[in-house]
Amino acid sequence: MNEILKTKTYLAFLEGFLTESRKSKFEEILSKRTQHFTVAIEDIFQLHNTSAVMRSCEVFGVQELHVVQEKYGKTIDSEIAMGAQKWVDVHRYDSNAACLSVLKKKGYQIIATSPHTNSCTLENFDISKKSAFFFGTERDGLSAEVLEQADGFLTIPMVGFTESLNISVAAAIILQQLTEKLRNSAVDWKLSEDEIFLKRIDWCKKTIKDIHRIEQRFLEEHAGNK
Length: 226
Prior knowledge:
The chain has 226 residues and is α/β, with parallel strands linked by helices. Helix content is 42%, strand content 14%. It is built from nine helices and seven strands; from the N terminus they run ααβαβαβαβββαβααα.
């Protein structure tokens, strides 16, 4: 991004095209966003599940979603996502290895959502650590590669005959419970001021019609201020 497009002047210019209500809504929602938790989904076969997980991330304030796409489609079902694709940052990978590497470099512990023998329950999960929650395919669950590199395992206790939940349902339950615990804790879970600033610019650009023309107008008016 051109450096002038990262300035307060540019943000003020863009926000001039928004209503006061819209600006306040952006600020309110961003104050509740987090990157302390993130979600990774592994080669989901049914597209609507990817879209539904994205929607859950948006609803519960998780800013980033990581999608591994080794085999299946690369399109988000916008009807199910309900516009969430505008507000959640989606990172795509061609392999589990690439996704795992990026997340670990960012300081996330890898948490496999699996009924593993030493799985932790939601009630006992340690929310103080940055965590990436991995969800597997509908058919086979998580791959051996993810399970082997996991730092921990998380399960949802069940008391019925059915042994598993749909991935989108499982993600919604986990995110709702753990983000609520996070917000009621002393953990520093919020976005930084710089992250909020850049996201305000991003959301403005995704909201304003004919943004390319407007952006060009700004650059022409401020060409000497680089």
